[in-house]
Amino acid sequence: MDPIQATLRTGMTRAIREVLEGMTFMPVEELASEDSEIALAELLCVSLLVHEPVQWEFKLFMPRNLLEEMGEAVYAEPREELAESSLHDLLFEILNTAAGRFLSEVLVDNQEFDLGLPESCDYDSAIADVPLMQWHFEASEKTFAVTLLGTLTDNLTDLVRSNKK
Predict the structure, then answer these.
(1) In the predicted structure, residue 79 carries a pLDDT above the cut 70
(2) Which of the chain's ends, N or C, has fewer CB atoms near its CB within 10 Å?
(3) Could you give the count of Cα atoms lying within 13 Å of 139 in the half-sphere of its Cβ?
(4) How many domains, the chain?
(5) 164 domain-assigned
(6) Measured CA angle at 93 (ends 36, 9), to 5 deg
(7) Is this structure's pTM higher than 0.70?
(8) C-alpha torsion 46→51→55→57, nearest 10
(9) In terms of residue numbers, what domain contains 12?
């Protein structure tokens, strides 16, 4: 794995852990992609575009039952009483916050970035996309994934922190 990809991998793992452990108090573990399988039943998908300094798209794929469990922790309500809009807002907030933390961590100091707004995506069409990178995680014995779509541009070496210290 080249140094840029290693920096991106570490950055997303740290961002997802910090966001989910902070918001939902659930421990999160990264899984080896080839060893993980996501249950397709009621899988929710949300996407978020990065407009600057690179054109990327993040996608978060999460089983509904895991999101409901997280919603119970965040909203302090039983899952049966959680509004559909609250679940979608939580999913949007998870991806938005994780993407912001990820970019803040991996981009060089003072590099500004511009994010779009999170949007629901259709899982069936989203799996056809070939990701630049993907991460699989486990929380509460349920697997979820984050993908990064886009390209590794020529100027990325000027934009991403070096993993060497």
Answers:
(1) yes
(2) C
(3) 26
(4) 1
(5) no
(6) 40
(7) yes
(8) 0
(9) 3-152
Residue 68, in any domain of the structure: yes
Q: What is the CATH number of the domain that holds 125?
A: 3.40.1550.10
**Given this model, what pLDDT does residue 57 score?**
94
Which residue, among 30, 24, 16, has the nearest Cα to 69 in the 3D structure? 24
Place of tokens 């009621």: 42
Residue 159: inside a domain: no
- Residue 151 near residue 132, CB atoms below 8 Å: yes
Please, what is the Cα angle at 10 between 48 and 129, to 5 degrees? Answer: 40
Q: What is the DSSP letter of 107?
A: B
**Cα–Cα distance measured from residue 70 to residue 67, given in angstroms and rounded to the nearest whole number:** 5
Whether residue 164 is predicted with pLDDT greater than 50 in this model: the reply is no
Flag whether 165 is in a domain: no
Q: Which residues contact 64 (CB under 8 A, 6 or more apart)?
A: 41, 42, 43, 44, 87
- What does the angle CA 44 – CA 56 – CA 114 come to, to the nearest 5 degrees? 100
DSSP alpha helices (H): ranges in 25-133?
Answer: 64-75, 84-106, 123-126
Residue bearing tokens 């309500």: 77
